[in-house]
Every structure is written in C-alpha cells, then in structure tokens.
Amino acid sequence: MSHKVVVPIGPYHPLQEEPEFFRLYVEGEKVVDIDIIIGYNHRGIEKLSEAKHFDQVAFLVERICGICSSSHPYAYVLAVEDILGGEAKVVPERALYIRTIIDEMQRIHSHLLWLGLAGHFIGYNTVWMWAWKYREPVLDMFEMITGNRNNYAMFKVGGIRRDIKEEDMPVLRKALDELVPAIDMFYGAVMDDPVIQARLKGVGVLTRQQAIDWCVLGPTARASGLNIDIRKDEPYGACDRLDWKLIVEKDGDIFAKTKVRILELYECVRMIRQCLDKMPKGSIDADIQDVPAGEGIGRVEAPRGECLHYVKTDGTNRPIRHKIRAPSFMNVASDKVSAVGGTISDATITLAAVDPCYCCTERVVVLDRKDSHKVMNGWDLIKLSQEKTDKIKEGLKNAAAK
Amino acid sequence: MDFRLKALTKSIWVFHISTASCNNCDIEILDCITPRFDVERFGIQLIGSVRHADALLVTGVVNRKAAPLLKKVYAQAPKPCVVVAVGQCALSQNMFRFGYNCPEPLDKILPVDVYIPGCPPKPEAIIDGIVKLVNKVRQKK
Question: Does A240 share its domain with A156?
C-alpha cells in the first residue's frame, strides 16, 4: 500500500515569500522530522558584486532582501569604511544620525509586517490588516525622505545620498506620535487575549542552550534569553549615543518572540525621536575617492539578526571578494529543534516565528511517515492552524457561558 | 466575446509566483490587498492554488532552480490565463542580467501579457497594470 501521492501545490506559496522548501515528516499529528532545502532564490550576488565598482555595489546588495533593504547596504558600506579606518572616522556626524533613522524605521516596518503575517497564520486576519494599515504611514515617511517606498538607495561609501529636510522633520515626528497608540493597541491585544496566549505560549520553544547551539540571531535569540545585539556589542551609526534598552525575554516560545518584537517597536520610536532631536547640521557625505587595498568587515543588526558583509579590495575600484551572511540562514536551521515534537497545526507559526525571509518558493509538503502519503500543502497548514485557534475560541466561549 | 475571455474581465483570481525575487514586489502585491488599496473591492483575490487562477503574477528574476518549476506551474493553470510580470527583475532581469544563475528573462519562458515596471512598482502601478489588462481583454471582443 505504499502508494505515494505528491501534490505539488507547494512550490509557490502566495503568503510569506521566500525560497525555502520545508519538508515536514509527521506521524499522525506530531511532527517527527523536518527537512529544509534552500537555493530557489540564488542569484549569484556575491559574484556580480565583483564586477561592479564600490558605489554600484550598494545598489546591488540592497536588492538581496526587500524587507531589510537598508541593512545590507549599511553592512556593506561599513565593511568598506572599515578598510578606510572605521565609520566614526570617515563619515560626517549628520550622516551617522540619518543612517540610524533609516535603519530603525526599517525595523519598525519589518516588525509590523511580521506581526501581520503571524496574525494571519494563527487565524487573526484582523491583526494582519491592522498591522499592515499602520505600516503604510511608515512607508510614506520613507517615500518622503528617500524617494521610494522600499529600496531606499540612501547608503553610499562615506555618507548618505539624501539629506532629511528641515520641513520634513515635523511630519516625521507626527507620524511617530501616531504610531505609538497603534503599538499600544497591538501590545494590549497580544498580552490580554487568552486565545493568543493559549496558542503561542509554550509552542515552538527554543531554550537558551539550543539558541546557543544553533547560533540563532536577532529577536529569535533575544527571546531565548541571549542578550546579543550588534547595536550594543559593536555600535554603529549613532546607536551608542542614544538612550535605549535591549529587550530580552527568557521563555524562548513564540509568545516571547512576539513580545520582543512588539517591545522593540517602542525602542525604535524612541531612538528615531532622539536622533531627530540630537542631529547636528553639516555635510552628509565625505566624498571618498579611492579605497586602498585591504579587508573589512561590516556588521549590522538587521530586523532578523546580525547581517555580516566581508569585503576584500586590491586598490582598484571594485571589490575582489565580497562575502555576505544574512541572519535567516542561521535562524531557519533552528526550526529543526523548535518545530520537531510539536503538532502540524503549530508548524506554520513555528516556522514563521523566526521571521525567515522565505518568500518565493516556500514549499511545505507534509509526508506521513508511516505510509509516506503526501498529505497537505502550505495552505492546508494555515487552515489547520486557523481552525485550532477557532477551536480554542469556542472552548473559551463555552467555558464563559457555563 | 468568448465567455472564457469574458470571465477574465471580472473578479480576477490571482496566483502569485515569486521566482528569485527580493520580496519587495511580493510585499507590494500583498500591500494591494491590505486596507489602503484593497483590491478585493473589485473581486481581485490572491488564491492558494494555481488551478483556480485567472492571472499569474510573476515577480523576480528567474533562476535555474526556479525555471522548471515555473513552467510546471504555468502548465497547471487553466487557460486562458494571463501572465503579468511585476517589477524590473521580471521585465529585464534588472542588475542580475549577467549573473551566472539567471540565464533567461521571463518572457523567453512564459508568454507575458502585461509588464509593470518599477523596482518595486508602487501598489498604484500594479493596480493600474491590472486595469489596463482588463481593458485590453474587453476590447478583444
């Protein structure tokens, strides 16, 4: 009876979009193993970068990921500035503050985006719509400051490309003020809702030791009690001149990951406000002409974790080696411990909880290990997850009625 | 008008394929269905299975691993089915044209009906592209 049915609906999954293919092995309801296959999004950016000169590479690495499209160019310019003597030495003061503003605004939009998608996965489509509604004003601010909603093209070696105009600052402040009540609302909704608590607490747990073993980064690590953050460990931009605190939670479950991200939104707003207050006047670009031979490393805390760029130069106008490591590469592997042992209906949210950049070719195929039947695709998984939330809701309603 | 073509002018169901893209176009497409733009007002919906699709929205530059899958997905779509290329990568391969892993542009692989330029195109541009498409289908009679 080993009749193998493969339903290939998976390769392109229209919601969370990036090229990973998860194969879950299940026995009944329980996930017993998971395979992660990547490579659907490989574009050869490191090689292409060797054929471009230093100013062009920033545009290229911006297109690695659309959500953290300021982290990659930032890490790259940090790597080149590392060869030139360090960011603080090369870059004018005002540019440092503007860099931090762009970086933190991007964190706000990325976390709101994740919150929306996470809400969708557990059956709260309202959360999705609301989170994305409040994300729009942030994108409008980006359009006002940089000229584009997503690829900002702000970073260049030795400074930034566009200044923030004086008349734009009150608009930016107002947008931040309007954002805070929205974050309050999300925080209240997550903390008070018994269904969300029942759904997320104790699910997809990554203990502190596992977090260390699997080298996870960013909010995923901070939710497991590791206090790592490049903005504290190796400050860049204006991060060390601002007053902000590191959000660390101990539990390691999805609830903790959600809480870390929501609380980080407050810190981002605080940081941008301080930047706007403290920003000095002056030039924004050091006008770098030549890059000497050498090696440099740039590290930036992207919304998902540490993003590392290594650049090697030989005195010509282009890098001879450019190595990139994005945070999701480490985080996605940790699904192997956090998703295994849970139920299938929790698998979607567990896989999504590390906020992987899995976009295009997310392919979830569930195989029943006993008779190796192909059972379901990504949409069925989301449906299962949403049904579980409905069941919990019903249960709570019934309990209240009694 | 052929009734199958007529069906394409109302309540278009869209299946979204992102080959090797950077997420930006994909997020802008999702933006279209969230409150500010809300194309579901016109019955345009993102759906989970390509077998129900009226239109394929393709984003990103097609790489070697994604190309055969893309062909497979297109073969499964019920015809007539329109293909919309969203973003510069799908149009002209953008800056990945000389990459070793991106051999062909999208329109050498699938017949593309509408091109929406931009990196990424704004949601308004995507909606505009769909409107132009519907008008084009209507004029065919």
Answer: yes
Domain range spanning residue B63?
A: 3-140
Q: How many CB pairs under 8 A join A and B?
A: 139
Cα–Cα separations (whole angstroms), residue B138 to A343, B5, B52, B131, B132: 48, 8, 21, 11, 10
CATH number reported for the structural domain that contains residue B29 in this entry: 3.40.50.12280
Name the domain count of chain B.
1
Q: Are strands B55-59 and B13-18 parallel, antiparallel or unpaired?
A: parallel
| Chain B positions in Cβ-Cβ contact with residue A69 (cut-off 8 Å) | 22, 24
Q: What string of pLDDT tens digits covers the 141 residues of chain B?
A: 677 777 778 888 888 887 878 888 888 888 888 888 888 888 888 887 788 888 888 888 888 878 888 888 888 888 888 899 998 888 888 888 888 888 888 888 889 989 999 888 999 999 998 888 888 888 875
Q: What is the pTM of this model?
A: 0.87
Residue A4 domain-assigned? no
Chain A residues with CB-CB distance to B under 8 A?
Answer: 8-9, 11-15, 17-19, 39-45, 47-48, 51, 59-60, 63-67, 69, 113, 116, 128-129, 132-133, 136, 149-151, 357, 359-361, 377-379
Residue of A41, A142, A148 to mutate, testing the B interface (most B Cβ within 10 Å of its Cβ): A41
Residue range of the domain that includes A384:
20-41+338-401
Number of domains into which chain A is organized = 2
Give the sign of the dihedral formed by CA A375, CA A381, CA A386, CA A392: positive
> For residue A295, what is the enclosing H or E element?
strand A294-302
Clarify whether residues A37 and A160 are in a common domain: no
